[in-house]
Design a protein that fits this description.
mainly beta, Sortase, Chain: A, eight-stranded mixed β-barrel, two-stranded antiparallel sheet, 2 helices, globular, Class F sortase, hydrolase, Sortase_dom-sf
């Protein structure tokens, strides 16, 4: 199995695959309202974003994510590695629950923090159903256990087919505080589920 790396920890290629069964679309005959996908315009980072980065925060685990633009307000659970080296995922039955990779960077400290959540479950849309509708410049808020809120600004929103997923670009180390929010996307097949992933790229621009 090909492995992806978060920092120095190898993680299996099914890191986000377990999010992508498409249970709701499967049970509804392919679905009449598939989740939105990002446009090509949202995949081009804003050159000014590099100048707007905020100073890194001390490490602190997060416990909630809010994305007001798409009405996300969800608790976060810690995600560990499974026995085969892949990242575990939140329970599919809890549609308003996301997770973060707790052995990696905490949101707000220098490096790349990872948050993942389901796009749907058997009952319908889940926490990150509308992730592909985000626009550059959108704010993402992460509540942290130290009482601070890390504020991230979206730089780009991209969709990748599973066979072309850019591991280093998504999971690679960063010299400033960055965030990736990941769910499923890239088209849907009844036989295999979603064909890829929507990835939001963001960086720290403030805190409170």
């Amino acid at each position: 199995m090909r492995r992806r790396r978060f920092g120095n920890t190898a993680i299996g290629a099914v890191t986000v695959g377990a999010l992508c069964t498409g249970a709701w679309l499967l049970t509804n005959g392919g679905g009449t309202n598939p989740p939105p996908q990002p446009s090509a315009a949202e995949a081009r980072p804003d050159p000014a974003a590099e100048r707007a980065a905020a100073r890194a925060l001390p490490p602190s685990p997060p416990d909630r994510i809010r994305i007001p633009a798409i009405h996300v307000d969800a608790p976060l659970m810690g995600l560990k590695l499974t026995g085969n080296g892949s990242l575990d995922v939140p329970p599919a039955a809890k549609k308003n629950l996301a997770g973060w990779y707790e052995s990696g960077t905490t949101p707000g400290e220098t490096g790349t923090a990872i948050v993942a959540g389901h796009v749907d479950n058997a009952d319908g849309p889940a926490v990150f159903y509308d992730l592909g509708a985000l626009k550059k410049g959108t704010t993402i808020e992460l509540d942290r256990l130290d009482g601070t809120v890390a504020l991230f600004t979206v730089d780009a929103v991209e969709v990748y087919q599973a066979s072309q997923f850019p591991d280093q670009k998504v999971y690679g180390a960063a010299g400033r505080p960055e965030l990736r929010v990941i769910t499923c996307g890239g088209g849907y097949s009844r036989s295999t589920g979603y064909q890829g992933n929507v990835v939001v790229f963001a960086h720290l621009t403030g805190s409170r």
